[in-house]
Write a structure and sequence with these properties.
The chain has 11 helices and 5 strands. With about 260 residues, the chain is α/β, with parallel strands linked by helices. A 5-stranded parallel beta sheet has the order 2-1-3-4-5. It is globular, with a radius of gyration of 19 Å. The N and C termini lie far apart (about 55 Å).
């Protein structure tokens, strides 16, 4: 396939740690195959060579935290035929969305010696809060094989085959005994699968890295946490981490006070 017929792929970064872009680079052999199928024309994490739009597919990492970011994502959307958000920051505001539950000016004053030079929004919001998104790939960071599946689906013109079930199913698939049955609080029942249930395999509760699964019953899970000895503060804090601004997690955390 010639460069003129291959779809043009762009990768964009907003407020984030770059972990999801690194997941793409970590694809190694699969990345070589991908490079034959698409023309990567904008990927600053990998190359300083960039080309102007339009783009057939844009992968976006990071949340919107400044007015300039809000303007830039609209520009990216206008130049992109398809736009896919990757990672917790892009799909749910990320860990930086903790600002959404407090006064941003208090944070700025506590961190910066000259806060008058800091310009930022009061909230950290997902890309979908600003522009239409064609698909959201969850994770902190994302699963590299899921990313390859999403890109492959785009090339084939089909819906990505990304399961919507919870981490509990992954625990069953790998034969891991439920840690909550053993008395360890875990977010697995309400968390989107994709990590391979790594933490429960080592007898640690799920931290919710992949955000809320489809139709999560967070109220019932919080009740079980309390039965295992967790305080309201414990429950609130666990729902305010990588996916703090995801609606089901944000709503449940607010139910346990500030």
């Amino acid at each position: 396939m010639s460069e003129h017929t291959r779809p043009r792929l762009a990768v964009w970064k907003f407020a984030s740690c770059d972990g999801c872009q690194l997941s793409l680079l970590d694809c190694e052999d699969e990345l070589l195959t991908l490079a034959d199928a698409v023309q990567i024309v904008n990927f600053p994490e990998a190359s300083s060579a960039t080309e102007a739009g339009p783009y057939d597919l844009s992968l976006v990492e990071g949340s919107i935290t400044t007015a300039r970011d809000a303007e830039r994502i609209r520009m990216v959307r206008q130049q992109s035929k398809h736009l896919i958000t990757i990672g917790a920051c892009a799909t749910a505001g990320g860990i930086q969305a903790l600002r959404n539950f407090a006064n941003i000016n208090d944070f700025i004053a506590a961190v910066y010696a000259s806060p008058q030079y800091i310009t930022t929004l009061a909230t950290s919001t997902p890309i979908s809060a600003h522009v239409p998104v064609d698909f959201e790939l969850h994770g902190c960071p994302i699963n590299k094989m899921q990313l390859i599946e999403v890109i492959s689906a785009f090339l084939a013109g089909r819906k990505p085959a990304i399961a919507a079930h919870s981490v509990c199913i992954e625990c069953k698939q790998r034969g891991t005994v439920c840690v909550m049955v053993q008395g360890t609080p875990c977010l697995g029942p309400v968390t989107h699968a994709g990590c391979g249930a790594i933490c429960p395999a080592y007898r640690r509760g799920c931290y919710g890295c992949y955000g809320p699964m489809e139709s999560p019953n967070t109220t019932a899970l919080a009740r079980e946490w309390r039965a295992l000895g967790a305080t309201s503060r414990d429950v609130q804090r666990v729902f305010r981490s990588f996916n703090a601004a995801a609606e089901p997690f944000a709503t449940e955390s607010k139910a346990h006070g500030d």
